[in-house]
Amino acid sequence: MSKREQRCLIIKTSSYGDILHTIDVLQYLRKRQNYKIDWVVEKRCLNLLEEIRGIDRIIVCDFRNFWKKCWKKNFWIELLKDLRWNKYDVVFDLQGNCKSGLVTLLSRAYCKVGFGKKAVREWPNLLVTSQHINVDRGENLRKQYLDVVKTYFNDFSLFTPQIEFLGKNVEKKREKISGKLKVMLCPFSKWPQKMMDPQFLLKFMQKIKDKYGPDVFCIFGNEKEEKYLKNLFSSKEWEKIVFWSSPSFAEWQRKMQDMDIVITVDSCSLALCGISGVRSFSIFGPTKKEVIMPFCGDHFAVQLPCCYGLKFVQICSKWRNCSSSCMMNGEVEQAFSYFADVING
After folding, report:
1. Is it the case that residue 3 has pLDDT exceeding 70?
2. Left, alpha or beta for 203 (phi > 0: left; psi -120 to 50: alpha)?
3. Among 78, 138, 145, 320, which is most buried by a count of CB atoms within 10 Å?
4. What CATH number belongs to 6-152?
């Protein structure tokens, strides 16, 4: 007798990087075979979710300018209509804040699962979930999200994530480094505090250029970022550098697969490396590298020291308002030495 088809709802509304960190959960649920999977996402991240396979229904919510919209009747009518279309066997709130709690509250489900008191981002979220699961906040984010779902199923077996291909991408066979080193540079993050200091970045890339003479592909997402890169690498010696903006995440992933290594920071580019099986080298400041850096595959990182000597589990308590960014405090020689060990080793 075949099992009854069940339906679950994943609530992971943003950001690009966090959604990519949740891919392991999607892969795990797919393996359970009898689950239909719906996903709630913010409108600004919809383009990424549309490129991910195996989602039965995408529910879009637009929480931008929420406090202005929440007074309008149509906002609630649209949200309720989409959320209550199906009744779910289980809802996984993997965002853990007040806004995702609102989505969880309005959804119809037999069981609503979220983070426990020690791991939830915003405590009011605890009021709308019926099962609270604590995870180690010092563990890798991908493991944290997966542990919530596996604990719900009382499953403590080993689950090994696979490479996730976006859009119509398929696996490419990658050879060992031969000839010119191909480097993709992804220096941007939504948060400026997570980005490398311009002079640190320029000196670091100069050392790589002098040592390896690589082909460098610089990725940007908008005109402001393009202008930043072209100003930074404006000298004649960088005239062969390639500036590229991806029309989609699938195209970006495909380009990554042609690279020998991706240099990046705590951003969606690093998360994309993680699900794509592409080697990465990342620079961390206000976030802990062990929590964000992909935990399987060829991934390497340097943790720059805090200006105030603060210790933190996941993210520095001063990171939003720090007057002396740790990303300006890096030793270029130390970072390059580690990078060279990665390339030569």
Report:
1. no
2. alpha
3. 145
4. 3.40.50.2000
Indicate the DSSP class of residue 111.
E
Tell me, which fold does domain 182-344 have in CATH? Rossmann fold (3.40.50)
Domain map (residue ranges) of the chain: 6-152, 182-344
Alpha-carbon gap, residue 219 to 72, rounded angstroms: 39
Other beta carbons less than 10 A from residue 246's beta carbon: 16
Cβ-defined contacts of 166-171 (< 8 Å, 24+): 166/51, 166/52, 166/53, 166/248, 166/249, 166/250, 166/253, 167/51, 167/248, 167/249, 167/250, 167/251, 167/253, 168/250, 169/250, 169/253, 169/254, 169/257
In the structure, what pLDDT confidence band is assigned to residue 80 with cuts at 50, 70 and 90? confident
pTM of the model: 0.91
Which candidate, 243, 253, 250, places its Cα nearest to that of 278? 253
Report pLDDT for 246: 86
Closest CA to 220 of 176, 264, 261, 168: 264
- The DSSP output letter for 135 is -
Strands 6-11 and 182-186: unpaired
